[in-house]
Design a protein that fits this description.
mainly alpha, 434 Repressor (Amino-terminal Domain), 7 helices
Length: about 110
């Protein structure tokens, strides 16, 4: 089964960061970060938020798989479903908020 840890590891390598660098930004130990990346520990929302800031990604881009050379939407959706419920709900809320803001801006531009 695919989980979010595969994508987190992919992003870290893609952005040429070491586990030590990422852990330092997140304010956690390297062993804790490696547990998250290996799927032995769930990532908390605040850590995911910091991580996406490090990679200069929005939650929308993260959920869409932006930055992946190959975009496997089904795989990414499975990974998102592996997130714990609280994190998943917050990510969905942020995506909906971004979409609503984008739609409102487009409507303002057409008036």
């Amino acid at each position: 089964m695919v989980n979010i840890s595969n994508f987190l590891g992919y992003l870290r390598v893609l952005h040429r960061k070491t586990a030590f660098e990422v852990a330092a930004v997140l304010g956690i130990s390297v062993s804790t970060y490696l547990k998250i990346e290996s799927g032995k520990r769930d990532i908390e929302f605040n850590l995911l938020y910091k991580l996406l800031g490090l990679y200069k990604m929005s939650f929308y881009d993260f959920a869409s798989g932006v930055g992946m050379e190959e975009k496997p939407p089904a795989t990414l959706l499975l990974a998102l479903n592996a997130l714990n419920t609280e994190v998943l709900l917050k990510v969905k809320q942020l995506i909906l908020l971004k979409n609503n803001n984008k739609n409102n801006k487009e409507n303002d531009d057409t008036i």
